[in-house]
Amino acid sequence: MGSKISKQKQMFSLLNHKFANLWEESVETTLEPGEFPEGESSDSQSSQLLNKVYNFYKSIIQNLSSGLIALDLEGAITFANHAAAHLLDIDREDLLKKNIREIFATDDESQKSLRALFIHDKRINEKEVHFVQKKGSTIRVGFSSSQIHDENNNFDGVIILFRDLTEIHHLKMQIEKMERLALIGELSAGIAHEIRNPLAGIKASAQLLQENSNEDGFHQQVVERIIREVDKANKLLKEFFKFAKPSKPNLNFHDVDLIIDGISLLLAPQLKKRDIVLKTNFADNLPEVYVDETQIEQVIINLFLNALDAMPNGGKLQIKTFRKNISIIGIEDVKQQPVENQLNYVFIEIKDNGTGISSQNLSKIFNPFFTTKQNGLGLGLSICSRLVGENGGNLDIQSEQDLGTAVTVALPAFIHS
Amino acid sequence: MSQIKRLLIVDDEEALTFSLYQIFINVPMECEVLTASSGDEALTKIEQGEFDLVITDIAMPGINGLDLLSMIKGKHPMTKVIVITAYGSDENKDQAYQRGAEHYIEKPFDLFEIRDLVIDLIS
Predict the structure, then answer these.
(1) Residue B13: its chain A contacts at CB < 8 A?
(2) Is the CB of residue B25 less than 8 Å away from at least one CB of chain A?
(3) What value of ipTM does the predicted structure carry?
């Protein structure tokens, strides 16, 4: 019997060794003290114990939110967990027929990574690469690798652990964008002073001339024109500052449906005049959003007016609200206990069946001063996007030429569970 | 305080101080109008005699307009102050009112409106 126990321990040791690099802490807690029988044990007990150990590891691997792939020395995939198949949008069986070379999105990334993967005793930590999904699209992943050794300590294969970085990358880009905008804001404050000061001097001088001129005709007209142009330049500057350095949002809890209802009421005469039918579809029990009401009203009005402009011959304007949640595990400050926070977003979708935006223009619509309108400044959407960002949300536009445009505004509504 | 109203215009934008000076020397009341192109110059003039009203820019060389405002209100609480600025920000506006400004006006402004405002304040 003693030899059986010894064999079990040997097998366990082997299992343990294979996963030690990735789950050292888990391994330590695998067996409670006393769980291994000290004395005699039956075959059935041994088999049960092995089964328990096997199921334990299987459960860990299959429930990982990260993808896990094991490779042989040729790079052939010998094992993949559910998350790996899910992240690569492929059936597990199909994934097991592939070589790791086929998973990398580019040859360059494949060659560089493979060289590093199969160098003896080499571990890769959080390397950023692109993997290709079944349908051909690519995902940005961060992967780490660890080498497998057999019982004689011979290099036997590689384990790759990877996670989807798309969302993290998106957030990183947003942070970088906000930092860039903050810098523009600071610069624009300086420019404001340099431009608005002489503008003030020009306008005051022109008005002084207006006050002291005895002529009714030509001179007065010219002076009035100077004043008008100064006011126009100042208006443009003010609009630009709204984009470059918006006021700090005055955040509070507000009902999105009420905001939309108010705007619908305000714009009802214009909708009627332009033969546009408004259809609303509000989700039940929406949480309140935590935003600056005035700024969000400004955004929604702007988006409504854009939709109206896109339907010169009438049409249908559809407004839909809904919510989405993201679970985040955080640490509560005082107790240092992990808590689950629900990061909630309320979405407002504004959809028209108007002229739409060409794919060429779609990539430029958030650029300041880009416009297709005759009298537009080209700041409306960039200001909207900036204001929504300042309120902790996101603005997204989908459009097809001649079919219409759908604008989605995501606004934060935090609920502590 | 004397019947002659004393006004001080503080701004480093010469075209603006000139226009403001011209408009105020012609208002229908007895006015002595002085100008300064910096906060320090303004302080020297204030030390030489109290003013009924000061119009001051914020961003200037030396002492800025907000600090000048605090000094004026600390020494001569009855002096009315209008803050003018090309930096249109909520922070500046809040600061100006917290420090006791009567008005906060963004540049470029309407010369005739500011004239009416001043007459109203010192009449």
Answers:
(1) 197-198, 200-201
(2) no
(3) 0.88
